[in-house]
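pinging the channel bc i need a second pair of eyes. not urgent but kinda urgent?? the chain im working w is below, pasted from the shared doc
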Amino acid sequence: MRYALLSLLIVASANADVFRILDDPRDAAQSRVDLIQQARSEIDAVYFLARNDRITLTALALLRDARRRGVDNVRLIVDANSLHIPKAVLAHLREEGVQIRVYHPLTLRHPLWVFTRMHEKLVVVDGQRYITGGRNLAEAYFGMAKMNYVDRDVYVDGPSAVEADRHFENLWSSADVVDLHAHVSESELRRASNVLDDILNNLQCGDGFVSLNTGTDWSAGQRDVAAVHLLHDPLATEDGPRVGARLTDLIASAEESIVIESPYVVPSKSLLDVLAAKAAAGVSVLIVTNSLRSADGVLAQAAYLKYRHRVARAGIDIREFKGPDSLHAKSIVIDGRIVLVGSYNVDPRSQNLNTEVMCMADDPETARDLLQSIDVHVRNAWRVDIDGRAPREVFPGERAKSFRAWFARVLLLPVIEGQL
């Protein structure tokens, strides 16, 4: 069953891909800088969240610089609900030839767009290399904030980049994204230009979290992986299964082990039934997620607590990350060989509403590397017992956070659980 399913999901090629896991936040930032600076003809980027901070402004300054040096196509799509880039900066970038579109802006023509978000994080360069994973464009995803997210990306170089490139082209030309028009004064445009100039000048002086013009080849010394595939949700005009359905089918094919790392765990009935059946059949099932202490919000945590006892009673090993930062990595390893890393959370929003991407590889050595990475988080986690309880250390604000979680579970979940 497993191999029949994989033959449908994985497009194997005579040439293999490099599949490099990016756990370290500095590597994740530097690899993006290097790919943008090494681009020759095209840079395509998709992000759910873009804040007005050093990470985002640095990325935008580099995109502007790429356009200035002759990269023909420099394009960016950001979810309209999570776009925090100043209007003047957006207008300046458009004048420089950087093309920007937004996904599902709130309009009277499409009021329901507010419920369906683009949760993807993807950068594709020259149709040959790409980075995808859980990190948004914000300092907290790159270790630069007071409270950070423990996250994971993958760098891929090879034939599967064609899939990533095709997906971006389809998204760019779809009716779900619209051009962004920002009208500001000439003085505001000059100030925006100076902001991006200052960002690059500081980096050129070595005063930054990344380096410019390193010439680093992120593929050098890396093994080739023969079967890599980018899974993504179909657009409104496309047919095909959603990412969540594909992941459930892959998990159902497991014969030995299932390891899931997700910041939010609010499983659907179908997924919970599959996991319980696998555990009952002797398949080792491990889930790593946030504890109340490390969770970045109480709504999703309250929903998780609703299911925790049921999951534990099914024989599933649950580990809750202690923090102090918040777990944000989204990864799955099946049977010690099938690896998935991307943007998909185990929750109703990722399953039914958001657009998501997951990069999949079938390779035992890569799986070992990822399992070692996940094990670092397991060693900093509490184990949930069979009755659905986990020991924990008292932390500042615990009582208030516990009360908010209880309040959300009792009064809000019956109404909004499907939106989490």
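so Residues 83 and 340 are 27 Å apart (CA to CA). and The chain has twelve helices and 19 strands. — does that match what u expected or am i reading it wrong
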